[in-house]
Amino acid sequence: MDQYIGLDISLKDTAISIRQDGKRIWRGKCPSDPKLLAEMIRKHAPHAKRVVFETGPLSTWFYHALTAEGVPAICIEARHAQKVLDETLNKTDANDADGLAHLAEAGFYKAVRLKAFDSMLTRTLVAARNQLLTISTQLSNQIRGLMKTFGLIVPKGKGRIFDGNIRQLLDGNDGLGKIILPLLEAWRDIRRRAADLDRQLLAAARESQETKLLMTIPGIGAVTAISYVAAIEDPENFRTSRSVGAWLGLTTRRYQSGEVDYDGHISRRGDNHLRGLLYEAATVLLTRTSARNENSLRSWGLKLRERLGFKRAAVAVARKLAVIMHSMLKTGEVFNALAGATA
Fold it and tell me: Where is the Transposase IS110-like N-terminal domain (predicted)?
């Protein structure tokens, strides 16, 4: 009597397919609202055992909302599901829901751990801050480029220095000033908003013991530490610390077939933003760490740089940082400068 359900979720509607004893017993559509979906599932599948849907923009909301409604929701890896769904002759939402229901019945899927809303709130804060900083940089570059056309070269400088240089160059040029000054005001306003988010982020970092623990590592700042904590959530989510490097896409891909066997570039799977932050932290550790913060991890990375080049060494140090940070969260110990490279 167990029933297996596949959901193909889109922004407006969700296609539903229900299977029982190897046969489809019902399929239809419902507005993409978890409460309405839960009612539909209880009506047509009172003995639902698995409700499967793919990862996507709405997956976190749907998973937590359906689980709160008592629905046995399971979010599965979209890349794995796609290989099965691509086998259908006609690509439709209904057929995708059928394919997901098949996977639910067969149990042939890879479940994904979805983050809690608190962690997603932190990630949203970091993402919003980064977006404002990116827009600020784009605007400043645009202003420099527009003024260069008229022979006005803006000297190097940031913040108030940049603002003062622009106003000084525009003095007496009212025609160009009417165009540039609104851009400059927008630039200043965006920087103020970014500073507000900066203060929120730093306040959240000060309240988190895990974040302060990770910031004992040279090169790890508040943004990297709080992003790492939000991504990992509970250290027990990973059986071993070494698996975190692979989860973040910092381990090399391997291809083996017959007599062919070689390692390629890193897989670049997982969280792109956190992987980039760890790479930046590794770069800082290798290039800007002072003598008083000398540690075995940096020494190990510098030896790799001599043998493999800077980029490969930085990737290796980033992977090692991911492993060490997980181990620190698990044990609650601060960074050990002498044992860092052996973690």
Answer: 5-149
